[in-house]
Amino acid sequence: MSTGDAQYIKNLNRRILIEHVIKEQTLSRSDLARVTGLNKATVSAQISKLIDDGIIRETKVGHIDSPGRKPILIEMNGQAGYSIGIDIDANEFRFVFIDLKGKPIERKVVPIDQGDVDEIISIIQYHLKPLIETYNESHKPIGLTGIAVGIHGIINSYDQIVFTPNQKWQYSNFKSKFEEVFNVPVVIDNNANLSAYGEQVYYENIQDLFCITLYSGIGLGIINNSKIYRGYDGFAGEIGHMVVNPDGELCSCGNKGCWELYASERALRNRFNAKFGSMPQNPAEIFEKPKYESELDSYIQYLAIGLNNIINIFNPQRIVLNGAMINQNPEVIQSIERHLKSKINSYETIHLSHLGEFACALGGAALVLKNYLNINTLDFVEYEYFNSHEKSAWT
Ligand SMILES: [Zn+2]
């Protein structure tokens, strides 16, 4: 066997072992050999190296029923390092820190004004730098593995921002500026792509998933065969600019009557502002008060028109909807499904996001962690960080 092959197999085994340790949470070396099919010597050598690197640690002694030596269990070393995901929307940015076990350990929403790339990066730096210093002390020896930035716009295959309807950051060297400031690997991606990835890693654990974000615009993130689907040049999923009304309002993309002008939550807010002066403070009131009924019906009808098209094009298994208003109103799903009457609409379920407004930041942080560990799949579903009560993961 040539050296190249040996290194390839070593890396492959390392990847398989890390993926299994993450998935199983805690297990012994002999369990690991059994579930991976690798021989015990290989497992032992690889795990020793991963322990030296700080990625894996030995933990409590396991229980066995028969007499004999109790096995030492291993697990991911959560406190060895951390990753950051940032979601930059039109009027605020959100960020999340996760540790090496994927556990969310810090989050915040910071309001921002429109600004150029340098201004936004310096605001982010102002808020993040003190936290990074603190976490570099508490999460050793690896520290910060990298940062992912979710952009509400189109990012091409060369990591260039092609179109941002809100900020006009076309073709800026955003990624390299970010890397210069923070001195770690930086990933930039579309916010809906990262949201879809977050849902898959933390909650869904299926190979094909559609995630639709409904905040200032509408984005579609597609997970296909466990990977983010990007299309030929990275533009896939710009579903907010699907035309639903050819005589409609002019959109920043140059067309008229794009879906997001009618079905994004910003569109709903504009509609309520125009008719009632403002949106109700409590999103639940939108469904409770009869005076809002006709505006809400019309909004949901537009939402369903786009969903009908997506369903007929892709035949998705599962669709996750994520928006500040709808996340607070689970009955919205039934209202939408009442409008999906086509005999050829075929899908398994449509449901609301379990990660909510932090889905993009979480997905970004998870993607950075996956890249750092150099593995193919990350699966934190069994850790139940969000299953019982979302807030519990943040305390
Ligand atoms: Zn448009």
TrEMBL record:
Function field: Transcriptional repressor of xylose-utilizing enzymes.
UniProt cross-references to SUPFAM superfamilies, sorted A to Z: Actin-like ATPase domain, Winged helix' DNA-binding domain
DNA-binding found in the keyword field: yes
Swiss-Prot/TrEMBL keywords: Carbohydrate metabolism, DNA-binding, Xylose metabolism
Keyword DNA-binding on entry: yes
Record family assignment: Belongs to the ROK (NagC/XylR) family.
Organism encoding this protein: Piscibacillus salipiscarius
Protein name (record): ROK family protein
Coiled-coil segments: none
Lineage: Bacteria, Bacillati, Bacillota, Bacilli, Bacillales
